[in-house]
């Protein structure tokens, strides 16, 4: 078809999957195509795909365009390249080709006009469409296949190798770092000899063994954690295996591949533990997970008791390992507000000084609290006085009612007078009885409120338990019997602890 015969066209724009993040690519394409159209003095309509789906079903503008092409609304459709029309499914390409062919609509790219009725153009259209749909599939597969093939040959393809291996470029496999070999074996033997994960982590940190993971960007090594040790112990790379395909992308979402679907092959590298050792390790790791969840969860004296003054949320305890000082705990607020900003509370490393200060704070009750208790005590006494007054009034009313009966029996008053006066007295008696009942109930509730004496008794009891407590769980229990919560606030180096008693 000669370009002279072309008068009215559609301009179709779509991002290709490779350009997902570059919106300016789309606007550059738009400029190029509109320049082309204006240059030839064609009238046009713009179809701009916002979403970049593979299939026609997910491309609204393409569906519309194909309907309009079918209705012979255009002499031609202008696109950047044939592959902008479609990628992916064969049936999509067949549909696109048939639509253009039967409506006698040409496809116009900046380089060439394709008229599918002409054999040459038909062939090159086919060729380009095949190329387009092959291209994205092969690119996607090539990397995966390369990795798979490598893994099947026993080569290492999975990124950073676990301690104490390193990647040898020449063999494309793992080799053992001889300095770290004895350390790895020591970890295995310590664990098999009943040492626990935390102690092994402390031992590694104290011996200045660089951690295999988690080295901070500033080059500082945070030291080993029990999590790192656990991961290392569990790894089957040291049994000789290599695993490929731990994650995959499904509908744009990265997901973890279940163990049984992963590609697992015997690697070329040296084995560093025996299957028997591995089995024992897994057995102990599993057992530790099942029994004694409290010990694993690390109950500390302050667990579940400290509330952040700044945001009002419960504060967390986090374990750390320091050179020389071994394991230590930090109290910190991890709360994140709905707008994504973090609570500004500053944390505190928990040391003996902190616990001593807290202990002092707890046993020396704030004078303000004592004053409140006293006020409550006064109110408590007031209520008792009121009840006494009401009870005297009640007795008076009851005596008056008795007298009323006597007066009626002795015919001092008429029946009518008796009924009226009796009704009045009975109403008053019921009213008083109800009032006294209510007052007594508030008194009962007040019995739960501490008096100053009972407060000191409870604190003495707490001191006794606390001083006798051996484990953190016991200390936590002692605190929880006395204390409802501890409100923490820190400004610079000033820490304020407010103790709320039960
Ligand atoms: Zn907070």
From TrEMBL:
Residue span(s) of domain Resolvase/invertase-type recombinase catalytic: 8-154
Keywords linked to the UniProt accession: Coiled coil
SMART domains reported in the protein's UniProt record: Resolvase
The protein, known as: Recombinase family protein
Any coiled-coil regions, as ranges: 387-449
All copies of domain Recombinase, residue ranges: 164-291
InterPro entries, per database record: DNA_bind_recomb_sf (IPR038109), DNA_bind_recombinase_dom (IPR011109), Resolv_N (IPR006119), Resolvase-like_N_sf (IPR036162), SSR_resolvase (IPR050639), Zn_ribbon_recom_dom (IPR025827)
